[in-house]
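Per reviewer request, we include the raw input and output of the structure prediction for the construct analysed in the revised manuscript.
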Amino acid sequence: MTVINTNVKALYTQTALRTSNRDSQVAMQQLSTGKRINSSKDDAAGLAIAARMTQNIQGLKQAVRNAGDAISMIQTAEGATQEITVMLQRMSELAVQASNSTYSNEQRGYLNQEFQQLKQEIVRISDTHEWNGFPILNGKAGIPVGSPKVDTVTRVGVAANELGKSLKDGDLSIQTDKGSFPIPASLSSSDPKSSALAFSSNKAGSAIAIAAAINSRIGDTGVNATANAAVVTATKTRVGTTSIQTDLYVNGEKVSLSLSAGQTSSERRQYVMESINAGTAVHGVTAGDGGGGGLTLKTVDGRNLSVWYDNTTLEGMDFGLGMDTATPSTPVGVSGITGSSAVSAGSAETSAITFKALTAGQKITLNGLTFTSTGSSTKEQVAGAFSNLRSGMTGVAATAANPISAALGTFSGTFFEGFTTGSNLAANGTATEIVTATATGKGNVGNITSSGPVLSVIQGATGSKEVATVTFNDLAASEAVTFGGLTFTASAPITGTEIARLFSSLTPTTTPLPTSTKGTMSGSLASGFTTGANDGANISATSTANGDVATDLTVSSTYSPSILVTQGNTVAASTAYGTVTLSSNNPFIIKPGANATPVGSSPAADPTYSNFTSLGFESGTINAKNIGRLSFQVGPAANQLINIDMADFGPNGDITGPITSQLAPTNLLSMQSANDVIMNVNKSLDRIAETRATMGAVMNRLEHVIDNLTNVVMNSEASRSQIEDADYAQASTELARTQIMQQAATAVLAQANTSQQTVLKLLQG
């Protein structure tokens, strides 16, 4: 069909011309910018990837510069420490010279002049040595990290036949600018982690329990306690000539082992280590091989650590847990136990609780749960109120468990974790005044607590004596307590510790009985027993002869329940204990508590504060230190940091403080002071050497950081180039193609525009 208004051929040509023109523009843009992606329409995903990579590359390049600046900064600091080292060496030389008897005190004064000048120069350098306008050797550069902090000293492990000590009321006080605050006794219920199967493992004495006791006063003291791991380090491994299948018990959990005679010492340690670590989630212990000849065991938290094995045919070194001694031995915390005792799973502790009748207003407390009688309650009714309790029950839950108690009185508090109680009904259904509490864990879990006395009896046997230990409770006026035939009646409020003192060091024939302004003693101690010194509120009566005693000692009080504890079976294994770290934002003082101080005419309960020191505490003031943490950003992402702590090199720091502090030896004017200077200069030189070693290690690390980041930048830029850079060969070819297409389209369009003129010939005809 011949038409004039629509030139289809021209329209086709125009479309082709527009397309080639657009392609030509893209090719020219790529060639002029060198980039394949110049806007999001070119490649939206590629543009996003390239933009993120550009950000990352720029961050990496800046991180390289940061690392270089960090090296320069540390080098500047290290250069000053080198000069301080030289001065300390000269000071040591002067001190050695002054400590010789060939000099008079006047001549030592000449040596002292140079000594004093050197000391002043060390102080000046520490105060003024700068980088980028701020001092870097006074401990104030960077983020302050020198808050008051102290670790308890490493606690000595406890032997298999001893019970680990715990923190008692009056053992520890923490003093701040707000006052002095006594720390309460540590409780076994505060430690749900430690195993009590080993006799020496006292849950109340674990780092977890002690930290919890200290933290109970954190609102007053501002001091936070953190439990640290218990650690056992062995140094010897032996591989026997016979393969054997055996078991290792880690905190009471069995680890089955196949010890092969074909293993090397290293392979044996590796095998035992992996076997122990496979059960870490259960027993809470990790094993490591530090190359010292034996394994190192460490708890994952502050729980106690006890490991034992059957030593009938094996020694600790067969597990990589021996000590390099002349005769086979193991570190404390690892024990060899003969025969079936090694595989004993232990048994749960039980406590027979005998309740008394209550009148209106009287109250008793058992394991943290307090019952207050609103009227007269018989002893059977009180026992019924404390029946069928479970760990963690609140007062509301206890009332729901025993609805009859609602008509008798009210509950408050919480029944602590670790114990449950049974029914007070006898086999024939008759209500009694006795309820049995059973520990939820096996072994020596610690006695249940009560507002009444608690008695624990270790029965005598062939070759051993019977021991009855009672924990006294506080008494109010007119209340009384009876133990082993002796009765104390209070005329004024008196503490359990004061009562225990009255019952200490007695025999059946002791006269006169001890006296107190707070009450009277009557009766006599049961025949065949003597009492020892009190341990806080505890007193032990020991039979004078070996064997089981026909009549056991008993304890009772006015209306509080009396408790007879039957200890759970334990394993005779030693235990390692963790330490505690105390920290605060403000200075504080650690000191022994009230037990170290006499009360009136009564002597101190613990005058040498032996319990305080045995738990690892040391008296002293814990002040903040000038320590600055320098952080170097060595990556494009947040918190990619390398840190180094820079301590104060001045008189208030630990590095040169032993020689520059006003409290340190300050002169060479006598032989004694010169000798003191020698010792303290050596301390400072050791600490500077340690600090410089840290500086060198960090600088070497930063150099590797620079090398690595430079390599990453190079590869990242190559990757980004693949995404966004233009291929010039391809782009130039595309430009040539589109230019030819444009020229051809222009020529064709001209012909298409003239093709309609053929219609004129039809009109002319």
